[in-house]
Amino acid sequence: MYPLAPTFRTEFSGLDSGRLIAAIKSLGFAGVSETALGAQEVSASCAGLLREARTPF
Questions:
Q1: Residue 35: phi, psi to the nearest 5?
Q2: Which of 2, 7, 19, 46 suits a disulfide with 29, CB 3.0-4.6 Å?
Q3: Can you give the residue ranges of every domain in the chain?
Q4: Alpha-helical segments (H) within 1-57
Q5: What distances in angstroms separate CA 9 from CA 19, 42, 45, 53, one per listed residue?
Q6: Cβ burial, residue 29 (10 Å; 0-12/13-18/19+)
Q7: Is 3 in a helix, a strand, or coil?
Q8: Distance between CA atoms of 24 and 9, rounded to whole angstroms?
């Protein structure tokens, strides 16, 4: 999976997102996802760990 930052549009403003994703997949990546999705998962996991912690931070 290749993480694609939402800011790619500033670097590749003239490139259609579908073409960019197709190009990345042609390099052998199984898929492309926005990096914000990964950050959301990490944040949720950290919040869960903090709720379960026995000692305050």
A1: -60, -25
A2: 2
A3: 2-52
A4: 8-11, 17-26, 35-52
A5: 12, 24, 29, 40
A6: middle
A7: strand
A8: 15
The two tokens of residue 5 are: 């930052």
- Which tokens go with 9? 């549009």
pLDDT in tens, the chain (57 residues): 777 887 888 888 888 888 888 998 999 999 888 888 888 889 999 999 988 887 766
Q: Can you say how many angstroms the Cα of residue 50 is from the centroid of all Cα atoms in its chain?
A: 23
Amino acid letter, residue 28 = G
Asked whether the beta carbons of 50 and 20 are under 8 A apart, the reply is no
SS3 for 33? strand
Q: Which two tokens stand for residue 2?
A: 């290749």
> By the 8 A CB rule, do 43 and 13 touch?
no
